[in-house]
Amino acid sequence: MNSDFNFRKDDIVFLLGAGCSADAGFLTSSDMISDLENLIRGKTDKKDDVNWTDFQRLYYCVKSSIMYADGIKGEFGGEKSINIERLVNALTALEKKEEHALYPFVANWSMNLEKILKHNWTTVEEFHKAILRKLRTWVTSRNYDRSDYYAKLFDFRSEFQFPLRVFTLNYDLCVEQNARKANLEKGYLERGFDEDRNWVWGRFEDSEKPWIGIYLYKMHGSIDWEKDELGNLTFADDTGNVTTPHLIFGTDYKLQYIDPYLFFASEFRRYTLQSRLIIAIGYGFGDEHINEMLGQALRADISRRLLCVTKISDGKDEENKRRLLREERKSKIIQALKMKTGEQILIEDMSAEKFMRENQLTKAELGKRLPPEDNVLRFES
Q1: Percent above pLDDT 70 for the chain
Q2: Residues 6 or more apart from 77 whose CB is under 8 A from it?
Q3: By three-state DSSP, how is residue 345 classified?
Q4: What global pTM score does this model have?
């Protein structure tokens, strides 16, 4: 492979998953479940105004039902185990009750669930809202210094010389806070909000705005987003003032027919199909919608590459064991993307922080990931 590749505009697309922020101390979806279970068992933070033990029986019932459904399909534990998104997904469906599309086909709700709720289904809604409020503490940091490796995106953008399309599945503000800390030019980070703080899709269109460095697509929402009194999507400077963050939280509800989420999904599909290299950092391939679009992009062009940056092995593992772990991870990614082979999938066994800090995020290093024949074709075009 060749390091002399001359990248062009939109040749690279970034996809940031939970693992990208985990190095900065933010909880992953599975970590959130662990924290929630501690709260439900009675280990409540004194600053927390929620009596989490009130939801203990409801949680155990919903969790066991999710695990039972997995077991019927032969899936026990592992990557299919419950996480915070699957829990909220289930609560969202239960909240709908009679309004759920499948309600006419359900003979009766779980007898255990009816017994626990005592016909008071508002408990489901209260539990759901309590989790969303708790999310604010899970994805908010008082000190973003630990996330300073995100600033390497800005360094790469300077070398790349074209605006970057960065899609993130995270709710946190790691990119935004590091942009502020770097004192970048106003408008360098385009999030889609106009001068009145209203979200406008047109701001992501190509334009004669040389000051834009990164187009940031927060595909599942952001901890600082909220709806104003007129129903417009806006944002707050202080996340503590956001009562109900505007988020998509639940795997089966991520592609709602509302903007900005539908627009972001369309943009992700558009730019992955234009790219030569898709860089997925800290993404666990647990989102079927994202996986479908990634698989489609790879199948559309055999020269396109997907670089997966993920920590797989321990630094103390022997090379043979690390090789086997990489092969196992690639096999799972191939299955998730519904690919026949893994020739287009590249695995970088390291943390997001290490990848960014150790100068892996450069044109020279990324150029090595593309086939030499593709480089020649691109140079000649």
Answers
A1: 88
A2: none
A3: strand
A4: 0.88
pLDDT at 374 over 70: no
| DSSP label of 217 | E
- Annotate 145-204 with three-state secondary structure: HHHHHHHHHHHHHHHHCCCEEEEECCCCCHHHHHHHHCCCCCCCEECCECCCCCECHHHH
3-state SS assignment for residue 361:
coil
Phi, psi (5° rounding) for residue 38? Answer: -65, -40
Q: Are 198 and 233 in contact (CB under 8 A)?
A: yes
The tens digit of pLDDT for each residue in 327-356 reads 999 999 999 999 999 999 999 999 999 999
In this predicted model, which residue has the larger pLDDT, 104 or 141?
141
DSSP 232: -
Label residues 139-155 b or e (16+ Cβ within 10 Å = b): bbbeebeebbbbbbbbe
Bridge partners (DSSP) listed for residue 234: 226
Residue with tokens 């988020």: 247
Separation of alpha carbons 329 and 321, rounded Å: 12
pLDDT digits (tens, 9 = 90+) for 78-98: 555 788 888 888 888 888 777
- Lowest pLDDT segment from 83-92, 194-203, 225-234: 83-92
With a CB cutoff of 8 Å and minimum separation 6, the contacts of 76 are 70
Fold of 12-26+143-380: Rossmann fold (3.40.50)
Question: What are the DSSP E strand ranges found in the chain?
Answer: 12-16, 164-168, 189-190, 214-218, 225-227, 233-235, 277-281, 305-310, 345-349
Other Cβ atoms closer than 10 A to 120:
9
Distance CA 289, CA 252 (A): 9
Whether the bond into 260 is cis, omega within 30 of 0? yes
